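Troubleshooting log. The previous structure file for this entry was overwritten by mistake, so regenerating from the original sequence record. Sequence copied from the archived sheet and checked twice against the printout by T.R.
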Amino acid sequence: MSTTSNITRGLVAAGIALTTTSLHADVFEIDGRTVEVRFEGEGTPVIFVHGALSDLRVWDGVIDALAKNAPDRRLVSYTQRHFGPGDAPIGLPEDFSRDTHVSDLIRVAETVGNGTPATLVTWSYGGEIGLHAMMRRPELFGAAIHYEPILYPLLSDLPGGRRAMQEKVRTVFAPAVGLAKQGNLDGAALRFIEGVFQMPEGSAAEAKMPWPTIWRNNSRTIPAYGAMAPLPVGCEDLGAITAPTIIVEGGDSHIDTVMMADRVSECLDNALTLIVPGANHGIPMRSPERFAEMISDVLNLLR
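Regenerated output below.
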């Protein structure tokens, strides 16, 4: 791991304090709230944004593999506010919101970029946060790779969108919500993951470590995540994004997930869709080396 003096100076100038906590994770402070961050390498920044029920650890396998093939990139992953291990409130903190997460990503990009536009790599809910950040501050982001970005407002105007969403609620959300209402948040998190990643019921607890630990650590965010108000977004809004963008989809993903990803790609003027045969929403978990190779190929094209 490497953090340079100019990163530190940039953090201080932005009012963000940086302290080292472990081999892979540092901490900086944004508006009085500590955020875990991992830096790997030097060069043009690539910022990784995780999805729901997760934290920066979900990117470790991808970054470890990518670092070997991207020596001129500064790979940056961070934990979005209130996610990760800890004792944050189970209810709805005032700053547990999509707007907060977008603002935090902007602060991270302002700081680690040192005036150089970053490339975004996002997954799931992280795609929603990344796209809104790109709409608000386009100068901060030179390109993006979104793995199945989740923007549910886009489904409402798509033929079959409401029905696809209803099917996701019935098969994925409802079983998890039932467990959450019983007070079994760990069980709810694991059942949710099984539904989203199309895993057999009961298999999430037996997944390769550290994944079950990550999901359990983040189970306390379920009530707050479910209660967050959506950020309005339409095709015209997304059309304002001009940075080169790659939308990646799994060939076997849920239909509502594919519909949203397709719609994002259609709305952007400078986007390309890549479909990974035999994969679903969980490819960064199941095949981090494969995903890292895809990112490396895209980064080489963007040089």
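The first strand starts at residue 18 and ends at 20. Archived copy saved in two places this time.
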